[in-house]
Amino acid sequence: MVKETKEPQYQDLFDIQEQFGFARFGLMSNQVWHDDPKRLVFVLSRYKFVAKMLTGKQHVLEVGCGDAFASRIVRQEVTALTVTDFDPLFINDAKQIQSTKWPVEAIVHNLMEGPLPGNFDAAYSLDVLEHIDPADEHVFIKNLCASLTDNATCIIGMPSLQSQSYASEYSRLGHINCKDMPNFRNLMQDYFESVSMFSMNDEVVHTGFHPMAHYLLALCSVKKDRGPSNG
Q1: Coil, helix or strand for 163?
Q2: pTM: predicted TM-score of the whole model, two decimal places
Q3: Which end of the chain is less packed: N or C, by CB atoms within 10 Å?
Q4: pLDDT tens digit string along 174-188?
Q5: In the β-sheet with 215-223, what is the strand arrangement from edge to edge?
């Protein structure tokens, strides 16, 4: 049966379907859409913020990509994107849902074991640092910095310490290192000359009263020559 839409501008919808089929969620995004649909908006908004802050960058690194479902939002604004995760199951899933229009390189890599070889002019890591033991956080950031050019931009995002009283049981799983904004800023200032902090509530990024923020974002640039003495 020939499918013709009432308005001709929508005919492309069927052309895309016939050429590429239907896109699917990844493992993580599928669970979010099933259990808490609105949370997917929050996740996508974080990636939108990263994408706009990194517009025009040549080679960008994502650490802890999960299924990389939202990573193509960043890929839309940069020349090349490499996504990494320490779990092979997520990287395999990321490869399966990848778009030929927005290709990314997906690699299994554990940053705690060493830097990823490369010369990245930007990097970002969302919802990862809170899963790392505070005793090991300097190893994580030191290895991340080792993969970056001197003037690179780095964005780290994590739930705020204050948010954990309201977080779901699923959301809190593995959260062993949430921080308040001052401590988060101090940590990133050990490694970067410039650190700008942003708050986030739901899908809204702002510079409001940080103790009421659900999520925190650190926008960092220009690596320092060396990190703290204990790093």
Answers
A1: helix
A2: 0.94
A3: N
A4: 899 999 999 999 999
A5: 105-108, 80-85, 59-63, 120-126, 148-159, 215-223, 192-201, 204-206
